[in-house]
C-alpha cells in the first residue's frame, strides 16, 4: 500500500466571512502542504458564476501555484472543453508544461460547471460542442501530443514532456472515449452512483488503445473525505460542507449570503427538514468520514476494487486549518496501512 498515490482535488471554496482572495491563497497553501506531505498531484476544479467558489480559471491559478511549489504535479480537474477551442486549451497547458516541465496535468470534462446563464455567456454553442465532444477531444489530443495529422498547424511553446491528459467522468461513454484516444481516466466516485464504477472502468480498460508504445491504462478514483482525530470531529467538519450544499439547493437560482461555506458551529445550528436529514445520511455514506485509520482502510479497499493506481481526495472545509489537518492525518494513515 506504500506505493498508492494520493492526489488533492481543490475547488477553492470561499468560507462565509472571507473573500475569493483568501480562497485562492488557501489553494496555494494547500498545494504547498500537499507537496510537503508527499501528495502526487494538486488539481483545481472549474466553476462558473458560483459565488461560493473562487476557481473559474484554473489555468491562471495553476501558474501561481506552480511558481510556489517545486515538484507536486499541478492540473485542472476539469477543464470544461465544450466552452473552449481545443487549440487554445493545448496552448494554455503546453505553456504551463513549459514553465513547469514534467509537472502539468490537463483533466478534461464536459459538464457546464455553473448555471445556464453562465453557459450562455461563455459559449453560445456549448450544446453543439457537447454533441461534437468526441471530435473535439480527439483534436485536443492531437495538439497535446504533437501528432495532429489533420492539421499542419504548429504550436509554440511545445512542452517536453507534454501535459498528462486525464478524462474525468462517471459514464461508460466517457470511459470508452478515453480508452479509444489513449487517455488516462479519472472516475468521479464522489459524484456518481458508485455501483457503476466497475462497468465504467472495465469499459475504459477494454477499449484502451495506447497512443505510444508501452503505454498502459491509468485509473484514478476521486472521493470526498474528511479526516480528523475523532469520528465525531470528522463528522462535524463534513456537516459544514453538507449544510452548505443544502443551503445552495434551498436558494437555487439566487445569489446572496448563502454563497459561502458555513462554520462548524453554524452548521450545527442549521435546522434540517426530515427529508434533508435523510439526505444528509445518504451523502455521508457516499463520503469517507472518520479517523485516518478508518478512512485508510476504506480507501485501500476501494482502490483494490477499482484496481486504481491513485486516489484523489476532495475536502471542502470552513477552516483551512481543518483541511490541512485532514490531508495530513490521511496521508500519515495511508503510509502506515
From TrEMBL:
GO molecular function annotations of the record: oxidoreductase activity, acting on paired donors, with incorporation or reduction of molecular oxygen
Q: Which Gene3D superfamilies match?
A: Luciferase-like domain (3.20.20.30)
This protein's GO cellular component annotations are: cytosol
Q: Where is the Luciferase-like domain?
A: 4-304
Instruction: Describe the family membership recorded for this protein in Swiss-Prot or TrEMBL.
Output: To bacterial alkanal monooxygenase alpha and beta chains.
Q: Which NCBIfam families match?
A: oxido_grp_1
Question: Which protein, by its recorded name, is this?
Answer: Luciferase family oxidoreductase, group 1
Amino acid at each position: 500500500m506504500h506505493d498508492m498515490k494520493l492526489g488533492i482535488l481543490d475547488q477553492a471554496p470561499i468560507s462565509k466571512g472571507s473573500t475569493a482572495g483568501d480562497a485562492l491563497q488557501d489553494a496555494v497553501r494547500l498545494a504547498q502542504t500537499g507537496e510537503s506531505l508527499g501528495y502526487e498531484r494538486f488539481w483545481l476544479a472549474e466553476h462558473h458564476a458560483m459565488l461560493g467558489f473562487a476557481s473559474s480559471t484554473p489555468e491562471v491559478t495553476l501558474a501561481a501555484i506552480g511558481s510556489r511549489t517545486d515538484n507536486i504535479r499541478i492540473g485542472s480537474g476539469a477543464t470544461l472543453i465544450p466552452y473552449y477551442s481545443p487549440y487554445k486549451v493545448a496552448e494554455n497547458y503546453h505553456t504551463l508544461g513549459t514553465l513547469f516541465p514534467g509537472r502539468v496535468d490537463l483533466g478534461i470534462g464536459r459538464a457546464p460547471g455553473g448555471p445556464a446563464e453562465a453557459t450562455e455567456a461563455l459559449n453560445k454553442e456549448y450544446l453543439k460542442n457537447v454533441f461534437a465532444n468526441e471530435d473535439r477531444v480527439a483534436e485536443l489530443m492531437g495538439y497535446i501530443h504533437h501528432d495532429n495529422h489533420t492539421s499542419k498547424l504548429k504550436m509554440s511553446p511545445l512542452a517536453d514532456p507534454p501535459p498528462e491528459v486525464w478524462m474525468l467522468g462517471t459514464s461508460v461513454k466517457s470511459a470508452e472515449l478515453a480508452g479509444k484516444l489513449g487517455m488516462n481516466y479519472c472516475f468521479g466516485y464522489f459524484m456518481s452512483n458508485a455501483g457503476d464504477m466497475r462497468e465504467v472502468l472495465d469499459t475504459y480498460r477494454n477499449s484502451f488503445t495506447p497512443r505510444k508504445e508501452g503505454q498502459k491504462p491509468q485509473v484514478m478514483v476521486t472521493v470526498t473525505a474528511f479526516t480528523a482525530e475523532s469520528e465525531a470531529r470528522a463528522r462535524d467538519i463534513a456537516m459544514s460542507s453538507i449544510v452548505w450544499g443544502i443551503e445552495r439547493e434551498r436558494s437555487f437560482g439566487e445569489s446572496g449570503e448563502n454563497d459561502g461555506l458555513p462554520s462548524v458551529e453554524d452548521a450545527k445550528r442549521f435546522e434540517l427538514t426530515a427529508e434533508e436529514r435523510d439526505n444528509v445520511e445518504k451523502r455521508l455514506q457516499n463520503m469517507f468520514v472518520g479517523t485516518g485509520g478508518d478512512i485508510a482502510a476504506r480507501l485501500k479497499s476501494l482502490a483494490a476494487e477499482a484496481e486504481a493506481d491513485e486516489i484523489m481526495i476532495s475536502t471542502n472545509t470552513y477552516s483551512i486549518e481543518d483541511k490541512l489537518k485532514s490531508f495530513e492525518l490521511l496521508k500519515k494513515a495511508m503510509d502506515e496501512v
